[in-house]
Write a structure and sequence with these properties.
The protein is of the alpha/beta class and about 400 residues long. It folds into 2 domains: about 150 residues, Alpha-Beta Complex (Aspartate Aminotransferase, domain 1), CATH 3.90.1150; about 220 residues, Aspartate Aminotransferase, domain 2 (3-Layer(aba) Sandwich). About 40% of the residues lie in helices and about 10% in strands. It contains 13 helices and 12 strands. The strands form 3 sheets. It has a 7-stranded mixed beta sheet, with helices on both faces. A 3-stranded antiparallel beta sheet has the order 9-12-11. Strand 6, helix 8 and strand 7 form a beta-alpha-beta unit. The N and C termini lie far apart (about 50 Å). About 50% of the residues are buried.
């Protein structure tokens, strides 16, 4: 009899973390590797946020806190939702977790019963389906296409809903595609959801402030207030504030759901790091102007990467509305061989050969539920991106 639970056989480790680990191992072995696999800003956490954390330490704010967040942070989150999204929440409707991932996990564990279905547009963040499976539910994928700019259409959503559908997990701008839904595109989806009152919406807004050009961010509960009572709006400080390692995410929703999530958290991690919580208060309440400045840098990097990848033989790269990823198709490389004779049969073969030959680490599209594609994170320096995209061009040109 195995010591390992059968439920773990239903899931796999995070592929994006595995790619980052592999790249680090190759670097440690002396290889010249450029890692474009991690979804982590290369900017540092702003000094005012660091200073708030230091003050929290010197003032002795290092003890246990309330399970799902200190009052000061819940108040700051309520103010953020009002300021940025025109959504009114009370502190009793706020849950603070150890990163956005825990907020999603808590919600699914607290609500799913065997046989419940969770709709997930593909391509999707790698953790969504596995968290659904751990919660005892069944992930149901709604495929999109490059032609639709990787956005789910209203008719696709309508066709996927069944009496067993309990949640729709919705991510805009998207990881891995960067696709952002406009207000009108969201309204078409929320009109569908109004017709199916058994479906709850879990919206992942982590890349809210990383949007480009004329694109305007909107979130489902803002677009359709009638969905307010069955929406969990999740966000966090990791991407916009360059605080990935601080591990603070938060969600807002109906009190009954928030209480259930706190119950789960009370028996897993208990409170998030107290110091990180006080830092997050400063992040949300303090100066916000640097966010737009950094987003402008990301936009310039996006344009560089899209341009260079579209010049690579066999690749096609749409221009995303937000986040810091692109999701190019490598369909034009499938069936070709490397000079060493390795056949590129799928996107996993493509990224494996790219890493081995040119030392560029990206993530294959199968991990995100849509092939033949791969994800490139441009959350690194312009110099590194220019070199990496040049290597990708050289690799594609070498295929025969």
């Amino acid at each position: 009899m195995s010591i390992i639970a059968e439920s773990l056989g239903r899931i796999k480790p995070s592929v994006t973390i595995a790619v980052t680990t592999k790249a680090a191992e190759l670097k440690a072995a002396g290889r010249d590797v450029i890692g474009l696999g991690a979804g982590e800003p290369d900017f540092d956490t702003p000094d005012n946020i660091k200073d708030a954390a230091i003050r929290a330490i010197t003032e002795g704010k290092t003890k246990y806190t309330a399970v799902d967040g200190i009052p000061e942070l819940k108040k700051a989150i309520c103010a953020k939702f009002k300021r940025d999204n025109n959504l009114d929440y009370e502190p009793s409707q706020i849950s603070v977790g150890t990163g956005g991932k825990q907020i999603i996990y808590n919600a699914l564990i607290a609500t799913l019963n065997p046989g419940d279905e969770v709709l997930i547009p593909a391509p999707y963040w790698v953790s969504y389906p596995d968290m659904v499976l751990l919660g005892g539910g069944e992930p149901v994928f709604v495929p999109t296409t490059a032609a639709s700019k990787f956005k789910m259409k209203a008719e696709d959503l309508e066709a996927a809903i069944t009496p067993k559908t309990k949640w729709l997990i919705f991510n805009s701008p998207s990881n891995p595609s960067g696709a952002g839904y406009s207000y009108n595109e969201l309204k078409a989806l929320t009109d569908v959801l109004l017709r199916h009152p058994q479906v709850w919406i879990l919206t992942d807004d982590m890349y809210e402030h990383l949007v480009y050009g004329e694109f305007k961010f909107a979130t489902p509960a803002e677009v359709e207030p009638k969905l307010y009572d069955r929406t969990l709006t999740m966000n966090g400080v990791s991407k916009s504030y360059a605080m990935t390692g601080w591990r603070i995410g938060y969600g807002a929703g109906p009190v009954e759901l928030i209480k259930a999530m706190a119950k789960v958290q009370s028996q897993s991690t208990s409170n998030p790091c107290s110091i990180s919580q006080y830092a997050a208060v400063e992040a949300l309440n303090g100066p916000q102007d640097f966010i737009a400045e950094r987003a402008k840098v990301f936009e310039e990097r996006r344009d560089l990467v899209v341009s260079m990848l579209n010049q690579a033989s066999g690749l096609s790269c749409p221009t995303p509305e937000g986040a810091f990823y692109v999701y190019p198709s490598c369909a034009g490389c499938i069936g070709k061989k490397t000079p060493e004779g390795t056949v590129i049969s799928n996107d996993f073969d493509f990224v494996s050969a790219l890493l081995e030959t040119e030392g560029v680490a990206v993530v294959h599209g199968e991990a995100f539920g849509l092939s033949p594609h791969f994800r490139v994170s441009y959350a690194t320096s312009t110099e590194a991106l220019t070199e990496a995209c040049g290597r990708i061009q050289r690799f594609c040109a070498s295929l025969i």
